[in-house]
């Protein structure tokens, strides 16, 4: 087994009605004045925000609200939250929502006790050293941010989307009640399930081997989503299916599915530019580009692709190349079956131009300052090739061909 370090300090409080514990749990952590960060009106319309605030009131915990978090969360709102938190002497940040609310809360919690510009951390000019405690009440299983050491924020000036990854970003606790996901629109449910899959596949498809238990955990998470996503879409109030999806989302991104492996993450970086430029859902964008990345990369990772084909999909024809291609097609068929796109035109409603492709690839490399990927190290020409493949999706002779 390859060497690794692992420490996940987030306490998971899982089950029906657990959001009612939020007041006393924050009080246990020493929180006295809480900034509640959330997105649109759904948490208000559902009554969740009122229930949370009543729980805080019962425990004598004061609170302030900061709503308006959007998908692909913006730096401008982070700045507003930091200013509000400093002015009101906030000592705890609570995210109520999905990954965008949680990522915003993490960035605000970094900025409040800091004296500089929070974007410096995302630019890697400085490393964060302190953070206010963050807790979450999850309403959309997808990003895994409820137990991860990551946050992703978009800077509007130049439309730059960057992630930050540090241990102090893990929430102190996260409340996971599957009932809170019953009213999610089907598209959000499906997009979230793709995101969970991709957090697992990005770790699975990387150079390295020998961590058998890690691979088995990853494969179990993948199979869990393949089984339960259609059930949840057919019956949104199926508690068992919603439970399995919610827990899979946490396990997929708390690092258990990739211990001992470096991970690839090229698909995520390629997609980040699509969601930044076109405002698409992150999971849907991943579905649109993953098959193209996989066909581009499979020659360099045939052992991982055949393992995926045989252990997840049960494909065993004896032909490595055929098995790998079949597994990629099966994955795309799954995406389609839950209403997700498998090409850029399906994602945004039109093909992108060659000029757009070059711009996307250039921004993906941070204007030529980095490479992406591990299984295949990608520079601008390789990234452009994947965008082109995802831009033209025709089926010829049983195989997908990109021009």
Report the sheet-strand fraction.
5-15%
Helix content: 40-55%
Query: Whole-number radius of gyration?
Result: 21 Å
Secondary-structure class = alpha/beta
Low-confidence parts, pLDDT < 50 over ≥5 residues? 394-403
Query: Biggest sheet, open or closed, and with what strands and sense?
Result: 6 strands, parallel
Number of distinct helices = 16
The overall pLDDT, averaged over residues, is: 95
The strand count comes to 10
Order of helices and strands: EHEHHEHEHHEEEEHHHHHHHHHHEE
Distance between the termini: 41 Å
Spatial strand arrangement across the major sheet:
1-8-5-4-2-3
- Which geometry do the CA atoms define? globular
Describe this structure in words.
It is a single chain. With 403 residues, the protein is α/β, with parallel strands linked by helices. The longest helix is centred in the middle third of the chain and has 23 residues, at 212-234. α10 (266-278) packs across α15, α12 packs across α13 (320-337) and α15 packs across α16. The strands form 3 sheets. The chain has a 6-stranded parallel sheet, with helices on both faces. Strands 6-7 form a two-stranded antiparallel sheet. The model is unreliable at 394-403 (pLDDT under 50). It has helices at residues 22-28, 42-45, 48-58, 75-87, 99-111, 119-122, 186-204, 212-234, 239-253, 266-278, 282-297, 302-311, 320-337, 344-348, 354-364, 380-391; strands spanning 11-14, 33-38, 62-66, 92-97, 134-138, 150-155, 160-165, 173-176, 394-396, 399-401. The chain is globular and about 65 Å long. It has 16 helices and 10 strands. The chain is 48% helix and 12% strand.
């Amino acid at each position: 087994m390859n060497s690794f370090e692992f420490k996940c300090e987030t306490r998971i409080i899982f089950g029906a009605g657990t959001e009612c514990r939020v007041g006393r749990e924050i009080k246990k952590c020493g929180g006295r004045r809480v900034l509640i960060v959330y997105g649109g009106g759904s948490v208000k319309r559902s009554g969740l925000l009122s229930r949370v605030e009543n729980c805080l009131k019962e425990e004598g915990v004061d609170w302030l609200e900061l709503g308006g978090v959007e998908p692909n969360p913006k730096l401008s709102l982070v700045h507003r939250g930091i200013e509000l938190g400093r002015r009101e002497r906030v000592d705890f940040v609570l995210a109520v929502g999905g990954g965008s609310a949680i990522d915003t809360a993490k960035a605000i919690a970094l900025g409040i006790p800091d004296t500089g510009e929070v974007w410096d951390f995302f630019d890697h000019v400085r490393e964060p050293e302190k953070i206010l405690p963050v807790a979450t009440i999850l309403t959309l299983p997808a990003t895994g941010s409820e137990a991860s050491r990551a946050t992703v924020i978009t800077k509007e000036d130049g439309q730059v989307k960057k992630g930050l990854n540090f241990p102090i970003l893990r929430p102190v606790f996260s409340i996971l009640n599957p009932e809170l996901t019953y009213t999610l629109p089907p598209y959000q449910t499906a997009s979230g399930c793709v995101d969970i899959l991709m957090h697992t596949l990005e770790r699975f498809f990387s150079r390295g081997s020998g961590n058998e238990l890690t691979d088995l955990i990853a494969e179990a998470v993948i199979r869990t989503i393949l089984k339960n996503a259609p059930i949840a879409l057919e019956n949104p109030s199926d508690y068992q299916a919603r439970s399995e999806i919610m827990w899979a989302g946490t396990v997929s991104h708390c690092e258990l599915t990739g211990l001992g492996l470096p991970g690839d993450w090229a698909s995520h970086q390629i997609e980040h530019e699509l969601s930044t430029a076109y405002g698409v859902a992150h999971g849907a964008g991943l579905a649109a580009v993953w098959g193209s990345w996989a066909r581009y990369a499979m020659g360099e990772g045939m052992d991982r692709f055949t393992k995926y084909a045989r252990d997840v999909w049960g494909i065993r024809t004896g032909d490595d190349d055929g098995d790998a291609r079949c597994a990629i097609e099966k994955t795309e068929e799954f995406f389609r079956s839950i209403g997700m796109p498998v090409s850029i035109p399906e994602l945004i409603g039109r093909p992108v131009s060659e000029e757009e492709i070059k711009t996307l690839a250039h921004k993906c490399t941070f204007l030529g300052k980095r490479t992406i990927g591990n299984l295949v190290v990608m520079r601008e020409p390789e990234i452009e090739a994947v965008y082109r493949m995802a831009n033209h999706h025709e089926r010829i002779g049983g195989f997908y061909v990109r021009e």
